[in-house]
Design a protein that fits this description.
The complex is a heterodimer. Helices cover 40% and strands 16% of the residues of chain A. By secondary structure, chain A is an alpha+beta fold. Chain A starts with 8 loop residues before the first helix and ends with a helix. Chain B is α+β, with helices and mostly antiparallel strands. The chains are: A alpha+beta, B alpha+beta. Chains A and B meet through strand 1, strand 2, strand 3, helix 8 and strand 4 of A and helix 1, strand 1, strand 2, strand 3 and helix 4 of B. Strand 2 of chain A pairs parallel with strand 1 of chain B.
Chain lengths: 361, 146
């Protein structure tokens, strides 16, 4: 027998109203504005944009406010909003070599042309709570130093020039897009990078960490990490030429890893690549490590059975919206499913009891 | 049709798209009469990157974009594609595009384009100077007698 049940509408309405009140918190405390979140919770905004796969700081800030600071819920809101918009086209690939630099460091070359520019980083802070922030302390303004525009060529291009890096085949092929077609294996490198750049930061971080601990080791060095803004250029059909339609902040990481080579090719360093929207360097470094680990096959390395080498495992589990959707649905009513489980276990127990009685007799 | 050289048009259209909506609104508070060829519409553009910075393209994520096209009473047409969801921003950018294709070009260049260029340059310079202040100056300590 199947009995459909309805109800709970009144309870749901009341729950949502309470949620709205709870979201606001104590009304004697001033309400947070969207610009406050955008400006002062910037790294949360950047994460929501990167994993929401939609660069719009105001919308990401709104999503964070609405989600009460639950970033995965905020990412969900942003992804849902995105699906309501028409897509006008695709940009020309961003030229990260011409990035307007905020931060740029290399762990491999001390004297890289353009220098080591630390930018606004948490590195080298003591990780002590700063109680002046609680007391509304004054903020020191950034120092300045006269400078011509910073010319910072990609550091790996220097190794490339000497033939020490594996070559990077140039192409203008239209990449597959996992927002338009289901993610299917085998996934080529462009498709893997799309999945990783919008993947969950925690998941990608842990996968990267596992390679460092020995599960698919790749011996990475951060050849270069850079943060800054790049123009976004798109071909406008009405005009017949391309124009800048905006500018976005990006974080890019290139790793230099151990070697490949063959009978015909001398040994060369190999590459891992990370590019993420916003100021998201933990994610960009993680992405480049996982990208490199996933390349074992094309580089002729052994499959050691490490999770980070398994494209299907990594790519099908890195999306936090898919993951949370499937995970959280199990808390919703499954009364009928469970009823059948109950009936099944009762039947099994009855059968077992009968069997035991018969055995005893 | 536009008589402007393409590179000039490309340059100011990019500048208008990259500028803050409020800055453009302050420099161009009043809009001339116009009719819509395409009313402002919000959508997205898929931004692409390249594998390793220079290799094959891949899809990085989308940005919000507002576009519109309009026509002035004298027939001049202006287009705009600007980042974000600000319809007034797109409208102003299209108006500037249309005005730049006629007699007002010099005046619009002086009152809108040049100030926006200056703002953008100042903004970039500020960031460059802050970044330059965080540039590491390595020094080597020589120890021992020889």
């Amino acid at each position: 027998m199947y009995v459909a049940t309805k109800g709970g509408e009144r309870a749901i309405d009341a729950a949502h109203q309470w949620l709205a009140e709870e979201r606001r918190g104590d009304p004697s405390v001033p309400d947070l504005s969207i610009p406050q979140i955008r400006e002062q919770m910037k790294l949360a905004v950047d994460r929501v944009m990167a994993e929401g796969s939609l660069y719009d700081p105001d919308l990401a800030a709104l999503a964070i406010k609405q989600a009460r600071g639950d970033l995965i819920e905020a990412i969900f809101l942003l992804r849902a909003y995105r699906t309501t918009l028409p897509r006008f086209g695709a940009s020309a690939p961003v030229d990260t070599d011409r990035m307007d630099i905020t931060r740029r460091i290399s762990a491999t070359f001390k004297d890289a042309p353009g220098g080591q520019i630390l930018g606004p980083t948490f590195d080298y802070t003591h990780r002590l709570l700063n109680f002046t922030l609680m007391a509304n302390g004054d903020v020191p303004s950034a120092q300045r130093k006269e400078s011509a525009p910073i010319e910072a060529p990609h550091i790996l291009s220097l190794l490339d020039r000497d033939g020490l890096m594996e070559p990077l085949p140039a192409s203008d092929e239209t990449p597959r897009d996992l927002t338009r077609e289901p993610l299917e294996m085998p996934a080529d490198r462009p498709l893997r990078l799309q999945a990783l750049t919008r993947g969950d930061e925690g998941f990608v971080l842990s996968m990267a960490y596992s390679t460092q601990r020995g599960y698919g080791r790749t011996h990475p060095f951060v050849g270069e990490l850079r943060i800054g803004t790049c123009a976004v250029e798109m071909e406008i059909p009405e005009l017949g030429f391309a124009v800048d339609i905006g500018e976005i902040e990006l974080t890019e990481c290139e790793t230099v890893n151990q070697f490949t080579g063959s009978k015909t090719q001398p040994p060369q360093f190999t590459r891992g690549y990370g590019l993420v929207m916003g100021q998201t360097e933990r994610k960009a470094i993680s992405m480049s490590l996982v990208d490199r680990a996933l390349r074992w096959e094309e580089l002729g390395e052994d499959d050691t059975g490490a999770p980070a080498q398994d494209a299907e495992f990594v790519l099908y589990h890195c999306d936090n919206i898919q993951a949370t959707g499937f995970l959280e649905h199990i808390k919703l009513p499954h009364y009928v499913d469970f009823q059948s489980e109950l009936e099944l276990i009762r039947k099994i127990r009855r059968d077992a009891e009968t069997a035991m009685q018969e055995a005893a007799e | 049709m536009s008589t402007l050289p393409q590179d000039q048009r490309k340059a100011y259209m990019g500048l208008l798209a990259r500028s803050a909506p409020r800055s453009l609104a302050e420099l161009l508070p009043d809009l001339p009469d116009h009719v819509w060829l395409r009313a402002p519409e919000i959508g997205t553009t898929m931004v692409r990157g390249r594998v390793g910075g220079t290799g094959a393209p891949f899809n990085l994520g989308e940005i919000t974009v507002t576009r519109c096209a309009l026509q002035l009473p004298d027939g001049r047409v202006g287009h705009a594609y600007v980042q974000g969801r600000d319809k007034a921003h797109a409208t102003r950018a299209a108006v500037v595009d249309a005005l730049m294709q006629g007699d007002e070009a010099a005046q619009i260049r002086a009152s809108v384009v040049t100030p926006l260029q200056a703002q953008e340059a100042a903004c970039r310079q500020t960031r460059t100077e802050k970044a330059a202040a965080t540039k590491v100056e390595f020094f080597t300590m020589v120890r021992g007698e020889d």
